[in-house]
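Attaching the record inline, Q. Sequence:
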Amino acid sequence: MGDGGARRPLRIRAAAEGSRVNRLELFFDLVFVYALFNIARATTDNLTGVGLVHALLIISLLWWCWIAYAWAGNSIRSSEGMVPVVLFTVMAAIFVIALTISEAFVDISGGLSGPLVFACCYFVVRILFVVLQWNVAADQRHLRAQMPRVGTTIGLATGFLLLAALVPEHLPAGTVRTWTQIGFWVLAVVVEYSAGFLAAPHGWRIASAGHWAERFSLILLVAFGELIISVGVGGTLIPHPITWPLIIAAVLGIVVSAALWWAYFDIVALAAEQALHAARGMHRVRLARDAYIYLHLPIITGLMLLSLGGKEALKHVGNPDLGHRPMHPIAVTLLFGGLALYLLGHLGFQLRMLGTVTWTRVGAIVLTGGLIPLAVVVPALAALALLAAICVALVGTELVLFASSRRSVREAVLQEHLAHEARETAWRRQHR
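Structure, as predicted:
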């Protein structure tokens, strides 16, 4: 550390084009694993239309919290200065939010108000983002001018969450109370997302395209981890002996997860990162906003819904009394609808980043929706097999049809990695 760093140990430093994701950011993302798991658990306990709406609203606000620090990590060096202290504080607040998920809408008597705790922790998470950005924007007039607007948006969104916590208590129990509360939450989500959409082109920047794309790839892996955990929990939720149908269902669950991983990471994610590298200025910011912030939300949500349906499927298959019966229509809709939403979000991501549409994925979405009437009348294991067949057919077809494009994209990425490794090797030899 130079003299300046010695005099200012809490100094926040700006990130550069070559910045990559560091260990602290990976550690930060771990708390979202627990949050996603708790959303899945709470929704499983309340697998109704209202319960699903609650889950979608919580995911939307947690996603916005994560987005803020993904953007902060792209503009500052998150492992230096005061940033780790701020991130640890945010992790604590997110962890408390995760603990309150089961009572974020309906308070459990005997302790603190769950909805109020959620709203207060949400405010802490969001306002600390403003603190970080205010410090890093000291020499960026346009970015610093955005901070009061961001602070106003945070205050307004938190106000709606506080109203959602306080107003329903004075309303009669039933539909009016439920949908009044949901209405306030919807307003909080709309305020955050609309303000973010309008503000992104003004003063903000994407310092490192590589860091940005990698950060979203890693949070998607977190969602895949939640998918695997939820499906596994479904298979062990009720004590029962291991059986061949349960083993087959578990293998099919991994097949679906692997196919969806492949669908995202094999070509499109690589090509999208190259396109983001090539973009400059406001064009890069708009791509990052549209394709990554907004169009990754349905991808994450699709995996979440798929995990709920998969959990119900394995719970069904593992129960000898239910294994031969069809699943509940809601569980089937979650399973197939989650896959369709994941592919639809990925299709939008591809269209925004690359300007192309993969018609095999359009066909897979249509087929997934068309098979729901069949899936609700066949045994759970057969429904899961149908889902796995769609995923395997999609990946296999694309491997054949797009073999040439796949080789070109992966060769370009390989050459970039080799060039980067050569530069790093030369630098290390020079500075031994």
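The chain is about 80% helix and 0% strand. The two ends are 18 Å apart (CA to CA).

More tomorrow.
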